[in-house]
Write a structure and sequence with these properties.
With 472 residues, the chain is an alpha+beta fold. It is built from 20 helices and 10 strands.
Length: 472
Amino acid sequence: MQKQGLELKQTQRLSPLQIQTIKLIELPVQELEQRIRAELDENPVLDDDPDPESAKNEDEQPRDVSIDAMKDDDGDIPAYRFKVNNWGKDPRPEYNTFSVRESFTQSLREQLGYRDLSARELQIGEFIIGSLDDDGYLRRDIESLVDDMAFRAGLEVTESEVEKVLKIIQEFEPAGVGARDLRECLLLQLWAAEQTPDTVAAERILEEQFEEFSNKHFQKIMSRLGLDEQSLKSAMARITRLNPAPGGQLDDSYSDQAQQIVPDFVLTEEDGELSFEMPRFRIPEVRLGRQYADLLAGGKGAASKSEKEAASFVRQKYDSAKWFVEALRQRQNTLQKTMQAILDYQHDYFLDGEESHLRPMVLKDIAEKTGFDISTISRVVNSKYIETHFGIFPLKYFFSEGMENKDGDEVSTRELKKALQECVDAEDKKKPLTDEQLVSEMERRGYKVARRTIAKYRGQLGIPLARWRKEL
């Protein structure tokens, strides 16, 4: 038998202002500029022109905006309340630059155009170039390309025709482009180079002993190819100078721009005192247009339908603009409080940048200091950078778990990873240290770490297994 009943549930719904603030907090400074300019284009109530009243009093200290203090009625509102002073004065023009590298596919198409090819061969070449991965490899087999050209381009071709044009593309710059695997990529580069004894030996190793090369079986290579140790060393050095990802030298499209990192915070240190500022980049200083408040006041007693619709439209845009301006203010406040908490927590580290001074710190630590939710701290930290006197770092860099050393002092995992990297850098490359030996070496340095932890950190640092680190 089914029963019906009423059940009360309490749910929390985010206000438009909260939603707006959350979205703005997540944005780094470059994207924030784009977001503000888009809002300025969409909402006529927002204004980024200099406030004429404030221009008369340039020497006066600008006052902060508090949207909470703004009245919802249409009474007189002081002009200063329509401006949001949410950025510092320094525009930091040196961060306004970015570079755009040459398109990878465009470069290849230009080289294709220089060749004396038929219209049919040009079509095949265009299709092959469009099928290359970002790193310059062709990871699709010839048979699939033939089928795709028939279905997608309406071009009936044979496998031999595709192979012929692919060979031409493999002669293009950067050397190695159009390869179907790593071996072919490296060989293409060697074939295009001056044929010195080292180059010829390197070609033989890749052509005849690639599996032994991959597994670093040096004795087998020397025995089978009749090479002495010095010849093998020279050939291996020649191979290691090759580029395994030739497409990575060029950007794949003009939409993927190689932008200079723009720091959201700039740290200054003077006589042991730390402070920071938030550069404006090119972010406009937005405010609410005074004329629209006047229009709302004038439309209070509107009688006609068109006048009421106009007043309703302006009220909607006005409320949206208020939320946006207040969200900017709250974003500024949230970022400032979070950065200050990080600065206080990692004070000793920020003085000199010495990694051993970096304390273990997790999101919860900063959430407790600021009173914000962990999710809010996560949004602030994500994609944000700080410029210090010892480099530019993502805020995520300063967060790490902690472990105890043999003296019982807590140290950050970042310090442990640095010590592990130093152990590997100092090892005898002819007899690289195994994970078990690295455990002993770390313990000798004062860090008690399990073997599985060594393997985990080694993987995170991109350090291969001992047998892969072996050198002649």
